[in-house]
Specification:
The protein is an alpha/beta fold. It has a domain of 165 residues: Rossmann fold, CATH 3.40.50.300. The radius of gyration is 18 Å and the shape is globular. Bound molecules: adenosine-5'-triphosphate. The site of adenosine-5'-triphosphate has 12 residues, from strand 2 and helix 1. The site of adenosine-5'-triphosphate (ATP) has 12 residues, from strand 2 and helix 1. Pfam families: ABC_tran. InterPro entries: AAA+_ATPase, ABC_transporter-like_ATP-bd, P-loop_NTPase. GO terms for molecular function: ATP binding; ATP hydrolysis activity.
């Protein structure tokens, strides 16, 4: 992985709201196919950083490229090369699974046949083929999250940004969701994921730990535990947060 060109590069990336610095000069690189975890407490600046990288929010300073495109000048190109599942992902409750795929596929400009193929492939993979005509509102939250993930991948992006994708679901469903993430990365898609569940950090190839807008540590889970002489990522985080 380390021999390939980074698919995300951020240098001194900063966002200031009024006189409050939400993201404070963060620098990092992500390799293609990597699962890159963005960890931190509530308000650490994870969502703000992600919104800058997805082209949704203009930075105050610093620079970054995503899939080779500049986050100031090429936001439209970035949007075509990435998928994004926000914290408040919104699928349509009154539409069926298939109709949701059709709707979002249309937004991405995919052909009807491509949408059909992608829908069939993904539902098959998730074991949801028999439910394709079920309305979203009849499904458990965990299924909706998996569908939101699949729909964010419908245009086969190079990178997928996931903002706390497993919030509010039970541990078994969280585990299944991470199986989906791992498989997707294995197939070559880069995963950029924020979470505040420290156990989820173990599934990431590398983790950046954010505290008050800054990246305080960045390495593999194994190296971080060694570096901080900690038995778990939870312990690493507590040691970091206490400074
Ligand atoms: N548009 C905004 N205007 C002013 N302050 C903002 C704005 N957006 C975010 N903030 C502040 O920036 C800080 C970082 O927020 P952010 O949502 O990036 O954190 P986070 O790490 O993603 O937390 P969470 O886990 O709660 O989503 C917070 O203190 C938040 O109140």
């Amino acid at each position: 992985m380390s021999n390939t060109r980074p698919i995300i590069q951020a240098e001194q990336l900063t966002k200031v709201f009024g006189n409050f610095t939400a993201v404070n000069r963060i620098s990092f690189e992500v390799s293609p196919g990597e699962i890159f975890g963005f960890l931190g407490a509530n308000g650490a600046g994870k969502t703000t950083a992600m919104r800058m990288l997805t082209g949704l929010l203009s930075p105050s300073a610093g620079k970054a490229t995503v899939a080779g495109f500049d986050i100031y000048k090429q936001t439209e190109k970035i949007k075509r090369h990435i998928g994004y599942m926000s914290q408040k992902f919104s699928l349509y409750d009154d539409l069926s699974i298939r109709e949701n795929f059709r709707f979002y596929g249309g937004i991405y400009g995919l052909s009807t046949s491509m949408i059909r193929k992608q829908t069939d492939d993904m539902l098959e993979k998730m074991g949801l083929t028999s439910e394709k005509n079920t309305l979203l509102k009849a499904l458990p939250l965990g299924w909706k999250q998996k569908l939101a993930f699949a729909i964010a991948m419908i245009h086969r992006p190079e990178i997928i940004f996931l903002d706390e994708p497993t919030g509010g679901v039970d541990p078994v469903t969280r585990r299944q969701f991470w199986d989906l993430i791992t498989e997707t990365a294995y197939q070559g898609t880069t995963i950029f994921v924020t979470t505040h569940y420290m156990d989820e950090a173990e599934y990431c190839h590398r983790i950046s730990m954010m505290v008050d807008g800054k990246i305080k540590a960045l390495d593999s889970p194994k190296s971080l535990k060694k570096q901080f002489d900690a038995g778990s990522m939870d312990e690493v985080f507590l040691k970091l947060a206490r400074g």
